[in-house]
Amino acid sequence: MSFTTSFQNTRSGRALLSAASRLSMGATVLGAAALFVAPVHASAQVAKTAIKAGKVITLNGEPIENGIIIIEGGRVTAVGSQEDVQIPWDAEVVDQPGMTAFPGFVESHVSRGIDRENETLDVAPFLNVRDSIDPVNFYFEDALRNGIVVMNVQQGNDTVVAGQGMVVKPYGMTVESMMVKPRAGIKMSAAPKRGKSRATQAQALRGAFEDLKRYLDEMVQRKKDGDDYDRREALYQGRELEGEAAKGKALQSEAWTIEGFERIPRGEVDEKQEPLLHVIEGKMPVFMWCGSAADVHTALRVADTNGFTKHMTLVLDNSCWKAAPKIKAAGVSVILEDNLAHRERDPITGEEIETFVPKVFHDAGVPFALSSSTDSNRSLWFQAAQCVAAGIPREAALAAATSVPASILGLSDRVGALKSGADGHVVLFSGDPLSVTSVVEHVILDGVHVYDRSKDVRVQQLTDGTRPPGTVAEEPEEYEGDGEDDSDNQ
Amino acid sequence: MLILPILVSALAFSAPATAAVSPAAGSADSFALQASRVHVGDGRVIENGVIVVTDGAIRSVGASAPEGLSVRKVDGEIAPGFIAMRDATGADSENNETTRKFTPTADVARAFDPHHPAWAHLVSEGITTVVMTPASDRIAGGLDAIVSPATGEIVKRGVALHLGMSSRSISNFVEPTSYAGLYAHLDRHFADAADGSPFAQARSGATRVMMEALSKNEVARAVAFAKQYGLTGAIIGAPEAGDQVDLLKSSGLGVVFEPLDAGDRADVAESAKALRAAGVPFAFASDAGTHGPAAMRMTAATCMRRGLDAQGALAAMTKTAADMLGVSASHGTLEVGKVADFVVWSGAPTDLTSRATHVFAGGKLVHESERSSSHHTHR
Amino acid sequence: MRTSYQRPQAAIAPTFRGAASALAATAALAMAALHLGGNAQAGQEAGSDAEPVRSQALFLTAKRLIVSPGNVLENASVLVEDGKITAVGTDLKAPEGAQAIQGEVICAAFMDPWSTAGFDTGSVNSRDLNAATMATDALDPYGEKAVLEELAASGVLLTRSQVGLASDISGFGAVLRTPSAEVVLEDASMSAAIGAESPGFSPDQFGGRGGPQGFSFGPQSIDPIDRIGQIDKLVSELAAGQKYAEDMAEYEKELAEWKAAIADKEKELEDDFKKAKKAREKAVKDAEEDGEEVKEKKYKEDRRPREPRYDAEKAAFARVVQGEVPMVVHAERALEIRDLLRSTEPFKRLRLVIAGGTSALACKKELRERGVTVIVAPSPANPGGPVGELDPGLSLAAELDAAGVNVLIGTGNASALASRDLPLLAALAVGHGLDRDTALRAITSGPAATFDVADQVGTVKRGHAADLLVLSGDPLSSSSRVLAAISGGAVVPQATK
Q1: Can you list the pairs that A336-345 forms with residues at least 24 positions away whose Cβ atoms lie under 8 Å?
Q2: Which terminus of chain A is more exposed, N or C, with fewer CB under 10 A?
Q3: Cβ C159 vs Cβ C185: under 8 Å
């Protein structure tokens, strides 16, 4: 079988390609995983792929036996049974009757693939992971092996207010080419940063917003003063002063009021303060780390005071299950850490209590997403499988690794399900995605074949000892000794 | 129950010279005191009771005094002097013995320093008898001794073999370093006990044992050990003894509660109530060296505020303690022939609002408090 | 202004030990003494997360009702409705549906003015706090319920809690209702400490818990020079706060003047506008004829006064210096207390409270004259303790009181549980010379008055919040038991074994 490598998809490139798709030209470019920027000339070829699999799990209805997915120009255009769907004559056909097609897992929050997790600065919302993502970081390659198609890369937990994150796919030579959604949210922490106590952390977190308020108030005041001065000057000089239209916009916040903010052109707001302003106005989502159940209260309090509860997702340590009722009442979604069982010793009886955290949130009706931020062997399929083992229905478990994260990231129509209009991401498993014996055989991102297990050099090294071409195994040297008696008995 | 205001008692009793309360003129060593209540210690309370002391011992306790003896009236209540089941005041040096866990023949009485100034504070809180023990981190640290800090007397040596069977006795630096090792050593000593050794004497019942054990697990092991070798005595620690009442009852052992730290949960209070209800004897340690002289009274009061009756608390600090130590022939209650160790309290003896206005040990006045002074006078 | 922060009521979920035990009998006896009439105690199931039943009215009756220490009503009752005391008297009748509770004595709940209850241990032991830190940020709604239960069982239903016990300056402490960790007053005090070690450094061979008071003044204490340095730092912060307050007041004044002047000017300009316009038109015409550019008149006005730069810590100290918030300073040694008194003398409106005060007798005259309140934490340990022969031990409270100093009794321990000993410590103080009523005041109305919540708690008065105890005897007597603890109008469920 052959695969088509399409031209690499930047957003503009795809627009161009789909426009050019009306010219149906056969796409038969074979090649390595070389990437091309979308061509500007009008004779762009539109890649079309038809993936036939023994089973297609769409997560948008019942699984389809002998199903087929059509991807054109990097987008899914049709999903259905092989009997019902017409294959475009110029599509590359992939036929894997023994495999299961799956939309791919969505990693809702991860701090890997970046240079360092956190800065020493307490409040640094102007930073962006765009500047620290390393496309060749091992994490991204490994994500493909685990069937993860998009990930929300955010800064780590050791912070007060960290920088902005972005959603990327684990394939590309540049950050721009990996980008799926640039402004994916700001990371904050309600749990104490190293060196702080809960009291000083909450103080710093609240203080960041209070500083912003003061800054904006001062700005508005200065502007008002300036306008008033201008008016008086004109009066003095006998000039008519033309009314000036407000250059900016009024503040769009539920919790804050700043009279006269519309006088300030938005461009004048200091870029260091701007990200938090977007948070206040609900334009920038927030990912708030909570290290303990008490931190959840801090997080909700700060969010409520500053009006961004609706745009906040809590990233939880597993001890936070105790705050489930509070979280439910606030109506926020949560992202769970990858250690799903919380263990605690009762201080009075001494007995060890184990709580399976996702079950608590499932029973409470709180939308929860799984995450696999530490080791590869705790990847999302494993997290979901553990949920099923603990009694959570399969749909809910799968959703926690696909549609719930997609919804949290605002990408519900693009990832997490195989349906018309979604991004062309398909993962082909050797069996059921949640089964421990299944492996990821192929990954297609935006219609591009980016991973083939049979050609995975590292896996081959592990499974059958094949060495990468050009390498030679070193034989350990015999140790001769230097003739001295090294034994302990002197 | 009447609550006696301190003001009244202080005013009623005009400040005396020491001589007025001790031996009355004419008699060699006899005097009599009458108080609004005399607590015998075994539950009997004599209203307007009179206690007569001769030659350091109690001659009589009753409603009246013998002919010819003038009776001095004191405002307040008389009770036996308290017995603290463990205290290391003045014996800080004993904590230096960190390299050897087994010194079973060590006689702790030798570390008794009757002149140590801290004893005075203990006495001023009504404690007239103290059990000195080796440090808690030893396994067989030696033989406990009963001392009278006020008179400087060693009341009895070798009263019990002190065994440390709690986590305190296990460290990473000196063997044994595990429970298994601890019990292996103890088994060896007890099983192969040489005649006349403290271990043999404990097995034969000639000497009691005082076993330190804290967690329920440690207590259960200690009880099993005691049963195995037929040991009698008490367990020191056991704050959760209330959950092991049946086990303790079947063992015949008593319990000595340690004083509460500010940060400890008051499990002891619940346990004291449970033991009282089940008839398991219990007493209190004072550990004034680390917890202060009033800690024992405070622990007893904490138990009372949670429901332990006053008589139970009083017995624990007097009669039961003496029984546990095997000195009830001479200590623990105010009865004829017993040593004249008693305290005049300004109110109920177990109430923290009471102060020890006069403390007698061996019939001598060893402490007297004046209301307005900033330092307590002592002997 | 002071904010009285009413948070939503946290759930009281007591942990109940195994039901079947010999103690069930004792518990039953205790319950019988409660004479529960009317409705049964509903809604307080084991492990329940339900809101405490506040809606049910309570009718408390006792042989002795201590309205405030020294003011006793015989055979009196208290009616509690919706969290408040709605009636107090000797001839009240229980309304329909009210839960009746009887006992020997009713009194105000005990308040520990020096506590750490309610906050997480990390913040309590932290040393990196600052003047603007709010202890309420460290509230731990998931803290050990057993701790709060024990405090309630001993009758300590209110505390002035702080964090950073060993921190030089630890920010704002709060008055809390212990059973629910509800905040009664968020900014009840500013706290500081001179010469305190962090907990755990004490050479305590029996477990290293840091000694009875949670920290040590032993051989590892901070150097005397450093301690004086701490006082200097504190005083300079107070001075900075005062300057900040003065600068702010000055700014407000100047701003008001400037605004008035500008308003006048503006009116003037508006009045003269027509004239100015005409003059300008003429000038423009003239300039056009001359082929020159119009030269506009130069306009000058006074600049708006600049607001002093906001500084949270200075603002906090400004409130303290102006007497809005009392400042609690933990100081033990005579030298430091004297130095503290002397250096804070210029701040006439400062409300100073000294906590600990072991050697305070050395300055008793100054303390009385300055109206300084002393929180004594009578530790039963080491009367010949940290400061040697100068330490009067357990009679400190009595001696200070005799000298006319306002005395409160507190626990001041890094462990929240320590507050449970408050009534016992008060009793010990009585045993060592303190007047009984004074001792009771020192743990009820006294702390309430010092920390500005006397209009809500501390005495049994109509209109106050219902924080009350029903006891089987005198509040300080060791044989008395707390039969019922009422916090914010709700009966606190008692843990039974």
Answers
A1: A336/A361, A336/A368, A336/A369, A336/A370, A336/A371, A337/A371, A337/A373, A338/A370, A338/A371, A338/A372, A338/A373, A338/A374, A338/A375, A338/A378, A338/A383, A339/A378, A340/A370, A340/A383, A340/A386, A340/A387, A340/A390, A342/A318, A344/A319
A2: C
A3: no
Cβ-in-10-Å burial (0-12, 13-18, 19+) of C326 comes to buried
Contact assignment for B6 to C424 by CB distance below 8 Å:
no
User: How far out from the chain centre does Cα B118 lie?
Assistant: 17
Burial of A34 (0-12, 13-18, 19+ CB in 10 A): exposed
Q: Are strands B77-80 and B342-345 parallel, antiparallel or unpaired?
A: antiparallel
Distances (CA, A) of B117 to B95, B310, B355, C342: 19, 31, 20, 35
Residue A213 forms contact with C (CB below 8 Å): no
CA A199 to chain C, closest CA, distance in angstroms equals 5
Expressed as residue numbers, the domain containing B20 is 6-81+333-378
Burial of C38 (C-beta count, 10 Å sphere; 0-12/13-18/19+): middle
Would strands A426-429 and A440-445 be described as parallel, antiparallel, or unpaired?
antiparallel
Beta carbons within 10 angstroms of residue C266's beta carbon: 15
User: What CATH code is assigned to A107-197+275-409?
Assistant: 3.20.20.140
Per-residue model confidence (pLDDT) at position A487: 58
Domain hosting C323: range is 110-144+155-215+240-244+310-452
Distances (CA, A) of B208 to A236, B111, B200, B257, B332: 106, 20, 11, 17, 18
- Computed from CA positions of residues B219, B220, B223, B224, in that sequence, does the dihedral angle turn out positive or negative? negative
Rounded CA separation A306/C420 (Å): 38
User: Do C112 and C464 form a contact (C-beta atoms < 8 A)?
Assistant: no
Residues B339 and B245 placed together within one structural domain of the fold:
no
**Distance, first Cα to last Cα, chain C:** 45
* Consecutive H or E run containing B189: helix B179-191
Tell how far CA B115 is from the center of its chain. 20
Q: Estimate to the nearest angstrom the gap between the alpha carbon of B220 and the chain centroid.
A: 24
Q: Model confidence over C445-470: pLDDT tens digits? A: 999 999 999 999 999 999 999 999 99
Contacts of C257 (CB under 8 A, 6+ apart): none
Q: Does residue C8 carry a pLDDT above 50?
A: no
Of A236, A298, A322, the CB nearest to C142: A322
CB neighbours (10 Å) of residue C35?
13
Helix, strand, coil distribution of chain B in percent, nearest 5 = 30, 25, 45
C475: in domain: yes
By the CB < 8 Å criterion, does A202 face chain C?
Answer: yes
Alpha carbon distance C490, C52 (integer Å) = 6
A407-437 tens-digit pLDDT: 999 999 999 999 999 999 999 999 999 998 9
Contact partners, residue C121, CB within 8 Å, separation at least 6: C414
- Asked whether the beta carbons of residue C276 and residue A235 sit closer than 8 angstroms, the reply is yes
Closest partner residue to B262 (CB to CB) among C26, C154, C413 is C413
Work out whether strand A352-356 and strand A341-345 pair parallel, antiparallel, or are unpaired: antiparallel
Confidence of residue C301 (pLDDT cuts 50, 70, 90): confident
CATH number at residue B236: 3.20.20.140
User: Which range among A121-130, B86-95, C92-101, C387-396 shows the weakest confidence by mean pLDDT?
Assistant: C387-396
Residues B307 and B226 in one domain: yes
Q: What's the ipTM? A: 0.85
Number of domains observed in the structure of chain C = 2
CA-nearest residue to C392 within chain B is: B374
- Chain C residues in contact with A294 by the CB 8 A cut-off are 120, 139-142
Are C497 and B265 within 8 A, CB to CB?
Answer: no
The model's pTM is 0.83
